[in-house]
Amino acid sequence: MALPEALPxxxxxxxxxxxxxxxxDRWTILILRDAFRGLRRFDELRRDLEIPxxxxxxxxxxxxxxxVLTRRRYQDHPPRDEYRxxxxxxxxxxxxxxxxxxxDRWLSGPDGAPTLLVHEPCGTEIHLGFHCPTCDEDxxxxxxxxxxxxxxxxxxxx
Length: 158
Description:
This protein is α+β, with helices and mostly antiparallel strands and 158 residues long. It is built from 6 helices and 6 strands. The chain has helices at 15-23, 26-36, 42-49, 53-66, 87-90, 93-107, and strands at 69-75, 80-85, 118-119, 124-125, 130-132, 137-139. It has a two-stranded antiparallel ribbon. Strands 3-4 form a two-stranded antiparallel sheet. Strands 5-6 form a two-stranded antiparallel ribbon. A hairpin with a 4-residue loop joins strand 5 (130-132) and strand 6 (137-139). The longest helix is centred in the middle third of the chain and has 15 residues, at 93-107. The two termini are 35 Å apart.
């Protein structure tokens, strides 16, 4: 699978920009939300999202082409497919959880969050955060720094 080409105004060395080329619009994020909720079929997604057929078909095709979803035939006559998250797609879970928890904190009404996420085996509400495996400590976003990684090409300044 080839990596998607970055848009002309995006820094090809920026993973956030490259990621947004795949998942950076409202419909795509909502399709992914529904995929994590177990909706897999075109008609289920269309009904839940009230999305135009052509838009849904386009976003599903892009997600399949990018390797985020896989398409599987579940019926031959007439041909019908379902869409399942791949390993690549499953790794988007923390991003969706972070968006949800941000919205719950800053945009929910006085009654609080419309949905709670729980650890299914024990029923405890979960909260996304940062944890250092070396120090075995939780930390905040202000404790994060960035530095060039191995995928960043050396820039010629002269």
